[in-house]
Amino acid sequence: MLAYPDYGGENDVWIGKTLYRMPYMANDVYLELAKLDYNNCQAMHYDEWKEEIQSKESMLLAYHVAATSIFEPERSLERLAWAKTTTLLQILESNFKDKETRKGL
C-alpha cells in the first residue's frame, strides 16, 4: 500500500519530480538502487556497443577477404555480394547460438 495514496499511479510521470519531498520514498535505499540500476543499464549499453563495433569490423574483414579473392574492378558486385552473404551468415549463426544458450538456461 502506498504511504501517499493521493500521489502517483502508473500513468503519472510527474511523480518522479516530487519524490524528494516524500520522506518515506526519498531515502538512501532508493537512491542506491537507482545508482545500481543506472550502472547496470550503462554496462548493458556498453556491451551492446562493443558487439556493434565488432560486427562492423567483421563486415570490413568479410569485404577484404572477398577483395583478396575477387580483385578485378569489374567484379565489384560479386565482392559486395560475398561480403553481404558472409555478414548474413554471421548474423544467423549468432542468432542460433543465442537461442541454444537460452534453451540451456
TrEMBL record:
InterPro entries associated with the record: Isoprenoid_synthase_dom_sf (IPR008949), Terpene_synth_N_sf (IPR036965), Terpene_synthase-like (IPR050148)
Gene Ontology molecular function, alphabetical: terpene synthase activity
Superkingdom field: Eukaryota
Gene Ontology BP, a term: terpenoid biosynthetic process
Protein name: Ent-copalyl diphosphate synthase-like protein
Source organism of this protein record: Medicago truncatula
